[in-house]
Fold each of these.
Amino acid sequence: MAKAAGYDLDSLCAQLNTTSLSGGSSENKDKLTQLPQRRSDSSSELDPELPPAQPANPLSLFTPEQIAAMTPEQLAKVLEKLEQDQVEEETEELKAFGYELFAGEPTSFEPNLNIPVPASYVIGPGDTFEIQLFGKTSQQLNLSVDRNGQLSLGELGPISVAGLTFEEARQLLKSRFKQQMIGVEASITLGELRSIQVFVLGEAYRPGSYTVSSMSTITNALFVSGGINHIGSLRKIQLKRQGKVVTQLDLYDLLLRGDTRDDERLLPGDVIYIPPVGTTVAVDGAVTRPAIYELLNETSVKQVVAMAGGLKPTAYRLEAQITRIDDNGFTTSLAVSDPAQSTVKVKTGDQLSVQERVDVKRGVVKLRGHVYRPKSVAWQRGMRVSDLVPSLDVLKSLPQLSSAILVRERLPLRTLSIETVNLAKVLQNKGSQSDKVLEPQDELIVLGFTEEREENLADLIEALEKQAYAGQSAKIASVSGLVRFPGIYPLGENMTARELIELAGGLAESAYGLNAEVTRISMQDPEQTEVEHHFIDLTKTDSRFVLQSRDVLNVRQRPEYREFATVEVKGEVKFPGIYRIKKGETLKDLMTRVGGFTDFAHIEASLFTRSELKEREEKQLRQLREKLKADIANSQLEQSNVGKNTNLSSLEQLSENLDSTEALGRLVIDMKSVLSGKSEDVILKDGDSLVVPAFRQEVSVVGEVQYPTSHLYDPYLNFEEYIERSGGETDKADDERIYIVKADGSVVLPYKSGWVNAIGVEIEPGDTIVVPLDVNATNDLALWTQVSQIIYQLALGAAAITRL
């Protein structure tokens, strides 16, 4: 399909090879083929010619039309190539050693001209002499060597110094002054030095002719030219003078040993020639400097390892591996014993890999878990558990002594097996059968009665799950229900239900200790899986019901068990306080226990609250608050749209009152009827509260009256007369919906009570008369109906609070 659409798939795949999925230009790739390098994250910054990073999705290299034209096989081929390139890109490659010395653009790296000129410096045209004459004559001379190599000394005549060393020229000049100027001494130094022209050729970063200081050496010239490119040799840099090789510089001497003896000073016309790189060997792994090294006189593995800085302390010193391409072009591997001392010969293109030592301790026994100092100690024949735990001082507080876990490797497959150890018996009788003999690689895990138990067992549970295989479940079991620490535990060989319960910290206080239930998945039939339930008698010490992998042991709660429930009694009773109650106990029973009421008790005003009712009221109050605020906002918006100016201040005030109202969870009861048996008794629950207030002589009037207050009880007054004593109703009052909250919390609506004379409703001490807001006169919106319900709830809450 792709070819039919005019696309050359082979060309597209070839495009991948030259795209920076694997980084760099094609030119750089040719170089990397000859001398592989590890890519640096900053390479794109150092080399502006590198292409920008490619998008994360490799298919973005193709157009949608190209992708659509591919067959599934062709697309798979492209994706395979892309994945291969991505893996190669992510693989960290080795750098060639030493080339980072010249990384970046060329630099002058001029020699230090402030140091004394060495006596061996060769004088040439352009050099300047500074001559200080003193004695019979005092004079300062600054003389330059002319193109003929001479210094003009005035009356003393010219003198040839070119080609002489500085020391030779200095002695010659002193001799001339001494002979021809009697009584005059001369101090001779070199001033400004000449520049010389040298050539840097071969595999230089920028080969060519360069002007440098006459004090420059080979390395100075290399820096000026940008250094050596990645196919140039660092070890056979030649200094040629008049067609002959004067010296050969090995930069490894400078880099590895700081030896500059062969870094010769340059003369005019010198040629620095950099030949191509020679034999290279890659060294990777646990060596000090993993890199690709150029060989000169090194021929053996130990010399290459020494060049790489030697082995790391973490290296596996007994063996290394050489990867080599044989004469037939196939890759082969060669094992090398003791690479630091091996005389095995290396060849160009070899890759020497030194492995890290395995971070696994052998021949040791370990202690961890609920201990102060986890440790690994060398195993010795005859070592026992008591050698790891000699006393309780080793353990943290609250250790579980009855069941520690001993993890042991079973040969030849090195699978893990589990045993339990009773540390209490071990410490009481060291050397006994309970004090198990340890084997190499044993691990003792001490558990504690703390929350870190799951963390201490996590690695072991994971290891047991990993060693499971098809047809063989992991050696773990679960404990649920009323044990101290439910969870997943390692399953020991022939472990019973009682042992697993002990491992889980034992039974909880509320556990049913007679039997437990084991749920088991049976896979005996290869065609199906069955679930079995077994009840285990926990009272029989000889019970040998052996648990199997993945069993779930469930310990049930004791029948009719409940923790102590409490109720609180306050106020005018003989013995107020907090009382524990049993299941089914009633309010009448409780009043007997508290000794009855005092002489000052207002029995009718008793306040009985319940926790679950309070939670329910809190939820209702939250919903009412949200509804009220939303309706107020909607009403304000409607008034703005239609130009009305209805006063919402009353409703907003009610909203604020509702926000400050707390739920009580009151259960209205007729205490006298309950105690006399005329009303059904109240079954008590945990968290119930009874408040018996002192007798009250007042009647309260609240709501839309001129002066809400409380009045001294008068048996001859009705509710309207109490309202008149509070100044009468306001203009906003709804006189048809007046109601009375009795002292016991019940509500009476006088005009709906069915009595012939509503005004004759009996008002009693502790009652509250509520005059509600006339919401219909304020606004005909449905909002106000909701507000009236809120007012009703608030009035009930206010009346209840007043009774406290």
Amino acid sequence: MATGKKPAPDNLSPEILQAVEKGDVARFNKCVKKGANVLGLDKNGWNILHHIGYHNKYAFYRSIVLEHTQITTLIHQTANDGSTPLMMSCKPIPPDIRLIDAFVRLGGDLLYRDSHGRSCTDVTSDRNTRNYLSWRRLHTTGLPDAVLEEQSTPKNDVIMQFLRSFTYMDDTFADRFEKELKKKKEKSANIRIIFLGHEGVGKTTLCHWLIGQKVKDGGPGSTDTMEVNLSHLMINKATGEVVFLPEHDVGRTLCHRRLRDMVGNLTLSDMPPQRENNCFIGDMAYVNIFDFGGESLFTNFQHIFLNDDAVFILVFSLHNCLDELAIVDRVYFWLKFIASYSHGKYKPPVILVGTHMDKIPPADRKNTLKFVIDIIRNNPEIDEIYQNHIIEFFHIGNKTQTDSEREIIWKAILKSAPYQAQWGQLLPGSWISLEHDIMRLRNSSTRVMTFKELKERATKFGVVDVEGFLRYMHTSRTILSFPSDDEPGQPIPLDMKIILDPAWMIRAFRLIVTALKFHLQNLEKDDPLLIEYQRTRRLKREFIDRIWRMHDVKEGFLSHSETLLYFIERSELIVKPVPTGIPTDVDTYIVPSLLQPADPDLVRQYLKDKYAKTSSTLCIQFQDKFVPEAVCDKFLASLIYRFKVDDATSLCIQRGIACFLLTGDWKMIAHCRDRMIKITLFSENPSPQPFTNGKQLRGIVTDLLDSTLRRNDQLHLVYKAYLHHNFEVLQEDNVLEPSKVKSMLHSDRTTKLSKADYDFWFTMQPRPKTAGKGANASSGNTSGVDLTREPSLKQMSHIAKHIGDGYVLFFLELGMKNNTITQVRQTNAALDFRSQITRTLIAWRNSRSQSDVTLSAIVDAMNATHMDSAAMMSELSPNSQEAEKIKKSVCDLCLPERRLREVEVDIVARSIGTMYVVFFIHLDLEDEIIREAELNHHGEARNMKMHLLHTWLQRNGKEASVHRIMMASRECDIIGWKELADKLRPK
């Protein structure tokens, strides 16, 4: 806690201040010997630590604090404007994060605000520093000492490498990482080369030539998504010599490298020189090459691999770029995209390559080059990017390349490599060894492994912190894994799947969403499944399995279909909408990037026709000039997963715009375009119930956006919330700061906003309450059910029937976290919606004290989110009409009162479908028993259901009747329940 307490009245002398400014330790000590007071203040109330922070003098601080320990007592002292030394250390451009960390270790308060209300985060304009401050607030142990020691300059590069890989590890990770480094440490040396450019400009030809592969006459043809050459190349960091490794040599090379890693404390120079393919192994960097398709379709998933840890080779055609403006536009697009990751000169690095030079007459080449560069750099924004990121510009012919040109480009790649974000990252030596072992597995066509299998391999190399290693590998996109970033410290399940080859996942995705010309290589043009997909852009599981089955022998897609679909969905390339009552909808996916283009006129006309009442508009505006369209696609995917799409409207869902159901009266429009996201609520009811969940909804929106940015390495994109009056994103939008709207008592013609609009989104609104037993009369409860009791499992399954479109808001009212709600649904993705809600209610019960888990709390939450609690309570009553209706329908079947036979178990198991959780709950099986069966029979749904039916038979003996089976079937509303009855009726 910062204080305003002042030390001795002596002022800081000009001489001592000059010593601090110059970082002159000798001069500082000389001043102290002459009697200078190091605890004094200047006229602004700054102490010596304020000045050290302001002048960014970390080395100076480290030198003097050992001898003058009394200065550490000044860390909480505030200046005249309320600022602390810690705040002052955040102001330089850029700050030295080592100094900030040192001040925090002294006790500097990261949450303190000065007299102007500013925090440390507010006073810095440096993105890296803001990221560090966010991380440091959650990690009290601070940065590992080894990382601070390796950070020998104020550039913060080593620190940011650590944070980039391990931001979401728990607070004890730094200590564990430190211990791993003490055993043996090494620096990573991987070069990721990513080829980008418009379709048909020669990217693949250039890639093949660069790695020594012969290109067939007429070129390699259009690249269908992406080609990857992983770890089959090495380059000597000292000489620039490139080694092209045959696939069978990769494992042997990696074994040599692992041997060197495991030698112990010997440095490379202490070891006998070992060569592999005539190169010293220790001087080698591994090269991964990614060649993306140039069609616009393929830009929708390139972001999975695109980050600042790469050397970008941006390719365009010199021959026809002046005639085809789309080629230059694509150069603009990719330069803006790459610049969105910018964090310093040449970070990330770009090599610009103009191809087809041999198609230009020799006399015109010089002028053409000048003209092309002038066009590219004529745009001031692009010119700035060009100067900051283009390391080299080459022009080559596609049929006249020479070995010397290839050597020059490889040297440019090597020159660019140190500007990659993760180049030279400090890592435990055992991690490097395990990484190479994973590469060997991948090159032997191992696609998937479990976390348990990874831990077993890690043991062989002495890797203790396997979770930390896993996050490092995922961050670098060497592998893909999705441990929860929202619950750091939670153990990773041993059965969690890991994809060793991300390119394999992309190939699987490409096959199901690729352009029509590639689909026709696998399906007939009049294939009904293909026609339906082209019409609706919705993927049915039958369509996916059909495509993957054709490639299963070579790729194994169908064999790993569940894993692939999970990862593709977690990457937000596809999304499962909230299930309807139709069982087949559980296996339906939407591809947000392939939806029809947005038409806001449809929304506008719809609102006009319905005379809808609308809310003010919440605007999320990114501060960056360029935001990839994939951000909008992925954010929309998050909304589609959590809120039910309003199929009743004519607009339904399009790319970047959708209408969702929130509560009985209220719907939500989301419009995403360029660097703006807008959220607007509307109601077709002219006098709707007041919507009191605006602040919670805003929290959901920002949580989803943060999760999307985090999963895709785009947390560098900074945004702010504003207010507006129009649902549509327009270029001339004049959005307002919320603080301005807060002070506007009445709306005017220009803004059409007032304080009420601020309150709608930023203030918690009062809720209707039932208040326990006494609520029976006030809430209209005539069911005879005690509201203070904890609901039973069966009651939870009944309640779940009435928790509809506003389920997210409902569970937030019950006190659950948005992340937890999402996790429960993801874990139970194969179930119908009612079962998912039942499981979420169980999760809520298990996370609360018994006194908080009451029917009263559920009724309150339903009322607050405009759900029909009266209908729900009526169904729970002892004389429920719904229960009587079900009982009568089963009695009308005239089935004999007999025990279910063993031979009938399989018949019932095949009929249950995705609602088996509710089915077995109504057979009085505990959820723990059901979960155990799911775990023991993972991927074997029919066997799992048969096991549970046998358990039920053993428990209930003669009471395990056909009648009870049919009652549970009717309760679940199983499609085909009458057919099941016919099969159980005696012949």
Amino acid sequence: MGRWGLTAPSEWNISGEPCSGVASDNSDWDNYPKDPAIKCDCSSNDNTICHIIKLRVRKLNVVGRIPAELQNLTFLQDLGLGFNPLSGQLPKELGNLTNLLSLGISLDNFTGELPEELGNLTKLEQLYIDSSGFSGPFPSTISKLKNLKKASDNEFTGKLPDYLGSLTELEDLVLRNCRISENLETVDFSKFAALTMLFLGNNSLIGTLPDVISSSLKVMNLVANNIVLGSTKNSDISTRGSDNTIYEADATNLGDASYYVTDQIRWGVSNVGYFYQATDRMDIIYSSEHFQTAVDSKLFETARMSPSSLRYYGLGLENGNYTVMLQFAEFAFPDTQTWLSLGRRIFDIYVQGALKEKNFDIRKTAGGKSFTAINRTYTATVLKNFLEIHLFWAGKGTSGIPTQGYYGPMISALSVTPSKQTCYINFNVGYIGSNFTPTVRNGVPKKGSKAGEIAGILTGASVLGLAGLFGIFMWIKKRRTMAKQKEELYNLVGRPDVFSNSELKLATDNFNSQNIIGEGGYGPVYKVVYFPQLSDLGKLPDGRVIAVKQLSESSHQGKSQFVTEVATISAVQHRNLVKLHGCCIDSNTPLLVYEYLENGSLDQAIFGHSSLNLDWAMRFEIILGIARGLSYLHEESSVCIVHRDIKASNILLDTDLIPKISDFGLAKLYDEKQTHVSTGIAGTFGYLAPEYAMRGHLTQKADVFAFGVVMLETVAGRSNTNNSLEESKINLLEWAWDQYEKEQALRILDPNLKGFNKDEAFRVIRVALHCTQGSPHQRPPMSKVVAMLTGEVEVPKVVTKPSYITEWQMMDGNRSYVTSSYSGSTTHEFGRQNEIEPLQQSPPIIKAGR
């Protein structure tokens, strides 16, 4: 730990003894929320000697090499060092850890080949080395790892070694995105008797997939290879219809507002809605009944349900005409009495946005029978390599309180096939020509002017010709740029809806200024007042009100950055993040389409003119929700994101007062292999961490600092700076520390709070002060912040006031070098405090909120 500059958490380093506290108790290792972490076994020598058996140092930006001293932990069973910028070669001394059962070093920055000494780890069951920088093939000594159950790597080269088949315990083999060149017909898959998961996508594999790979195989991904499917009938991977169509499995349970893309990247599925009084979170239902009229009965043994809106997306399709077949069978209603008492399942069906079935009733269409298969066939035209099928429940059919499983869309299988009679070729002929016909005024030219007129005509024609050619060139260049940007967007996996400029012009009443609800980092934000082909104002087909964010021409963010933001936002979906519905890039100013959150921003709710009257319980849940959203951005999302502009006006509240982090205009992708990002300052005074304001040193801890300020604002019911107050209270952070040192921290609470949990309030204030420590290393990661807020982890004692506050107090009383034009002034987000443009040089010390 000392080599890496880490300090042992107090929970397992009691009185200087590492093997104490949670390190030696019965707490759950897998669900322990902290890093670093150790686990000890103190049973040796009549419980007098302790040995470290588990060590985890993940996602802590640990820099350097693995110290050789690690080989002394010979009792180690579990070693996790992933998600750090560790470098150098993997020490061969790791081969001395012969008791090791699990080794995880994914997403590090090692070099060279794997050492042969890894073959000494004969007890090893799990090996995770994805994206760790290693080169070359696996060493042959890996064949000694007879107990290996899980192996994962994406930098392996060469061929699949023969000895993999001798690893008879192997259950999960993941070698995707490698450089494997292999003919699958030469691989004896029969040796992989225990294999349940096989991922070999994005390699250079060829040949025909064998009929039988493993009887226990459940999940397989061979996407992006040159492989011909054999006649495998492994139903856990896919279901084959009677017409030899392979149906890819759709067995993932979705959340209240979530989506996923299948491993083959052929289909995307999204679900919106929550089953009222749901007894479980299952949206896949099963039946073992025999289905009438079903040629392929197996297709109807499962069905996906949704309480509101269910969408399927066909991805990467060639443009042309397709036949869409949807297959249904009602089996949630087992008998007539239940059917009559609960109502009917009625929903609408849209294909490519066109209404195909209004008030579709599965059971009625099947002649009033359950367990009877029916299908619906439609034609659809794909123009942008993308197909959408939307099943939407509009609230009809259920007269009583809706019960889980007895209302909303339900579907068993679907298929999309090219129309057999149609040949289609994308062939666009563009003809651009110019026909200059010079004209002169009527009458006889004056003597001597003919040569001049001819010269003038020729000159004019030349100028017009050059101008025309230049215009054509610029037009073609613009078209190509736009086509490239659209291609980038359409290639996004799980991409959002793409709106046309004409749709959004109608929706915003031609971007009428009266519909502006605020000004964000991209420019004005409009609330939709009309949408084409709809009778309801301000609604999308599935009942959503939307906010359209228009990229202003004066914005520093161009279209390429716009596409980057779309990719970023599309990749992250969370309950506490503002949902991106779609975008538009065919207008002069690109547009983003967000969910509209009618309760506005947090700054309006706590120190604006809102009538929400937030009590303590509401404020605490808002704080906790923001923390969870940031924890997702920093530590759980597939891409690690630093927001850079966390503030009260960038937190929006939905109808249930659930907080959602907005405005990713300043978000910057953060490379986990770097300790920080050196960047121009971009943020808002009052929320800037000292290291970011002074040196442009950006890490996740800058967001943690800003969140600490937002926490204090939320509990105090005021902005971080208020020049109308007495001198000692102008700066909220300074005042909070003053009251904390006087053991009167609760005095900073909003006087409008009539009742609150004092212990909980004091804990929130302590967490906020912990988040706003001067050194980023002293601030906790957001996952720990969540644990501290919920009481799962004790809040460490805040020892001293940060030095930057002491420096403020030692200054000559100069509180005016930052103007008050932004102090506490906000508008709805879509309304904001004044923002800082990127600085060309490091500024002097900037007081938070001054």
